[in-house]
Design a protein that fits this description.
Rossmann fold, alpha/beta, 13 helices, about 290 residues, 8 strands
Length: about 290
């Protein structure tokens, strides 16, 4: 008999507070960007990027581990998301990539490791392909960008917009539970955190612009191309999970194989947020990868 085990989820802010951190807003072009930093300022930069409709609390169980290992950790809210300026136009991949480049410039970061979940992984790959001299290593985590599955896109759009239009406990909980292998890992605090972000005036309209990537035509022109995957020369660790609702592990395997220095890792007993559901395993996986020297 196979036994499935899940880790207990600590408090979001208790997780962050295991090491000193700064939470602030900085101006990056036209985007007033919500930003959390931790770890030594002279450490190698490690940028953490959330998924569609997400927020920097996605990495509450990872920041301290990475900072304590000596990395200068940067987690932020994407344009249009959470505490960053809301969107008044559709946001496609060039918007996110340009914003990341501007963020690094604003913070004075010459090169960075990039770890992104879902949309964040999509951005990490696009950025590494187009800005190789600003990229150290990348960890795309259940990344989007190579699949266009209508049933998944419709599910994301429907659940996300419903929660944005009416950020009730039930609708936000349903959106978060879709992400997880074990619904019990959706804590009351996580629900409250997302409800607070989704309840900000103007967020419902911003969500419509964020969710444009779930439109088949818009998504098609933003997909990661074979040429872009081949252009990612830096070491890349593609992380997938055993119960990811966005698609099969083969998508991640194919992605890793197409990148010259790519490799693949599977996290068991996790859905779309392995960094949340299996935080200790994920943290060790990423730290071991980043510590490797050529």
């Amino acid at each position: 008999m196979t036994t499935t085990t899940f880790t207990r989820q600590p408090s979001v802010w208790l997780g962050f507070s295991q090491t000193p951190f700064t939470l602030e807003h900085i101006q990056v072009g036209r985007w007033n960007t919500r930003l959390l930093t931790a770890g030594p300022a002279d450490g190698e930069a490690l940028v953490l990027m959330h998924g569609t409709g997400g927020h920097l609390e996605t990495y509450a169980h990872n920041v301290s581990a990475f900072a304590d290992a000596g990395y200068h950790v940067v987690a932020y809210d994407f344009p249009g998301h959470a505490g960053t300026t809301h969107a008044g136009e559709d946001l496609e991949l060039p918007h996110y990539v340009d914003h990341l480049l501007g963020l690094l410039d604003t913070l004075g970061i010459e090169k960075a490791h990039l770890s992104g979940e879902s949309l964040g992984g999509w951005v990490a790959i696009k950025f590494a392909a187009h800005h190789p001299h600003r990229t150290l290593k990348i960890v795309p985590n259940t990344p989007g960008g190579t699949m266009s599955r209508p049933e998944v896109m419709e599910k994301i759009r429907t659940l996300s917009q419903a929660a944005a239009d009416d950020p009730s406990y039930e609708r936000v909980k349903a959106r978060l539970e879709w992400l997880m292998a074990d619904p019990a890992t959706v804590t009351e605090e996580l629900i409250a955190t997302r409800r607070a972000h989704y309840s900000r005036p103007g967020y419902a309209e911003s969500a419509r612009h964020i969710l444009c990537l779930q439109d088949p035509d818009i998504r098609r022109r933003n997909l990661i191309t074979d040429e872009e995957l081949a252009a990612v020369k830096v070491p890349a660790l593609v992380v997938w999970s055993s119960d990811d609702p966005s698609g099969p592990a083969k998508a991640g395997m194919d992605m890793a194989e197409a990148m010259p220095a790519g490799r693949f890792a599977l996290v068991e007993n996790a859905g779309h947020w392995p960094q949340w559901e299996q935080a200790s395993f994920f943290n060790n996986l990423v730290l071991d990868f980043l510590a490797e020297r050529d």
